[in-house]
Specification:
Length: 264
């Protein structure tokens, strides 16, 4: 069974909550893992491995589970790997393998996303620098990493994946690459903030996009929200200034407004 949809990002933008809401729908079957990471980190495993992560295909990890090998009660399936939107090789790989796939993107205020990403990296032991230093040193840490990924498709960059706090918030750059391969009507782009505030409403928008009937969940608890102290207000404002022009370019690209923090 091939996936019908992929949530491609963004990291710390609500993808875990959205995915867990979706797979509670009786017409949507979950993948073996929420984040399959085939098109970014596991591409050398091959297509058979990827398909084995979805219902309807034999998988030794689900041996003897009739619900896994039979998808009679579900009509679609999908995954959510939030590194996909940022990885430079993924759009072309997905376009070649799944040209009619439906793509879902949650975009969070890049200021809040960068801060949340930093504390996520600290929590997992990926980051030892103070927050301001981590942001300042990002450019040097990422220097040459995209070129290495493009030169060697099997190269996996720790810094590009884990220490890209500001770069991941340059959404227009990333989406322009996706629009080279996918039509705009294949891509649903939502505000993370709007989704957090009205999860039921925005879940129904996603269901409509996917062509399944609206489904009422018993609750809309937020998954993996992250808990941390807000940074110094001056740093927060510096980030708002940094992202102002990229955000304006994003809104022009999409013809869509996002109610994010303005510069000082």
């Amino acid at each position: 069974m091939k996936p019908d949809f992929i949530i491609i990002g963004v990291q710390k933008g609500g993808t875990t909550s959205l995915y867990h809401y979706l797979v509670q729908h009786p017409q949507i079957a979950p993948a073996l893992d929420k984040e399959v990471h085939f098109f970014d980190l596991e591409f050398d495993r091959g297509w058979d491995w990827y398909e084995s992560r979805f219902p309807g295909r034999k998988n030794p990890e689900r041996e003897g589970d009739p619900a896994w090998t039979s998808s009679a009660n579900q009509v679609i399936t999908g995954e959510a790997s939030p590194y996909y939107i940022f990885h430079p090789l993924v759009p072309q790989r997905i376009a070649q393998a799944l040209p009619t796939i439906k793509i879902i993107v949650l975009l969070r205020d890049p200021v809040d996303r960068a801060i949340s990403h930093y504390y996520h990296a600290v929590r997992w032991g990926f980051e030892q620098l103070a927050i301001a230093d981590a942001f300042t040193q990002e450019k040097d840490r990422l220097a040459g990493e995209v070129e290495k990924i493009l030169a060697n498709p099997n190269y996996q960059s720790f810094n590009h994946r884990h220490l890209s706090y500001l770069s991941r918030g340059l959404y227009a750059d990333q989406l322009e690459r996706w629009f080279e391969y996918f039509s705009r009507d294949q891509v649903l782009i939502l505000s993370s903030e709007a989704f957090y505030q009205a999860p039921e409403t925005y879940l129904h928008k996603v269901e409509q996009f996917l062509g399944v009937s609206p489904y009422q969940l018993p609750s809309y608890d937020r998954y993996d929200p992250g808990n941390y102290q807000p940074p110094d207000p001056h740093l927060h404002q510096q980030l708002a200034d940094y992202f102002y022009h990229p955000n304006q370019r994003l809104m022009q690209l999409l013809g869509q407004h996002f109610d994010w923090q303005a510069p000082g």
